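[job 0412] stage=complex_fold ligand=3-isopropylmalic acid status=START
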Amino acid sequence: MHKIGVLPCDGVGPEVVAEGLKVMAAAAEAYEVDYELVEYDIGGERYLRTGEVLPDSVMAELGQCDAIYLGAVGHDEVPPGILEPGIILKLRFDFDQYVNLRPIKLYPGVETPLKGKGPEDIDFVVVRENTEGFYAGMGGQLKVGTPDEVAIQTGVYTRKGTERIIRYAFELAQKRDKARQLTMVDKANVLTHGHGLWRRTFAEVAEEYPDITTETAFVDAACMWFVKNPEWFDVVVTTNMFGDIITDLGAMIQGGMGVAASGNINPEGISMFEPIHGSAPKYQGKNVICPVAAICAAGMMMEHLGEVTAAAAIEKAVAAALASGKLGDLSTRSGVKTTEAGDLIASLVE
Ligand code: IPM
Ligand code: MG
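[job 0412] stage=complex_fold status=DONE, emitting structure tokens
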């Protein structure tokens, strides 16, 4: 029995989570997956009502779960910088979910803005470091609000943190068994200290994986190649902030935020799965958001829980729905309701 903590949170989060759970239920029924859901009322509304963001009591209960399924975080009436660090980053850090796995895959039937590129060209995975870098929150401010104000925010890179994410990426390149290629994206030409550590670690770990071809790319050039030659990539490993930025670009080339899913993984602990899109408050309650990303995140969660046949069934159903053209252009203007998209995909689970 898998115990899954569900955090729908803000904006359109609850709507897409409902569809992900619908499809998961269909796959679980078909393949006899036993699971229990425990839903938590977390997010902007609770914060405004009680001042609580993610109480220790909820963290303790989530610590008893096998996985966490999250919708989206961000509320119009809560200033930025409270809910994001208080919920998403807290979960990632406290549960040491050091891998942020972000597949960039163009499904047949989905339109990419890249001219002349198709599903055979766009199929790679970004492995984003998820606990260090500029997200570590180290630094401080002086003389705030004065003309002499000083702010320092430091990028944190540890040998341990660097090595474990790079090693995970090498293992993934082997497991995928596609081009057996790993590209490290960094800015080692400028961030000589931190990304120098990444380069050295990459070269050292690479010696243990002689069957994997390695490449390095500066982040600016990588952005160019994501657009110009996405077929060059198989597995990409990168730092926390660069991973954040390049995966929004990746989401666009795979057909939009509506299809981009992610897993925040602690291979030895509790992992969290979420669509990479935000809470889009202006669409809340309108039933217009594409739930495919959240459904794919549920599929990733099933796979992580070892339910590989149920996960494959979800993936196949998503692919079939997208190929059918019945989900339109996956935008909020597609004319397809969130609930209809979920119904269609659930009905296609075999
Ligand atoms: C993401 C998001 C988060 C991040 C925010 C909401 C903190 O943009 O998951 O990519 O920056 O990691
Ligand atoms: Mg982001």
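The radius of gyration is 20 Å.
[job 0412] exit 0
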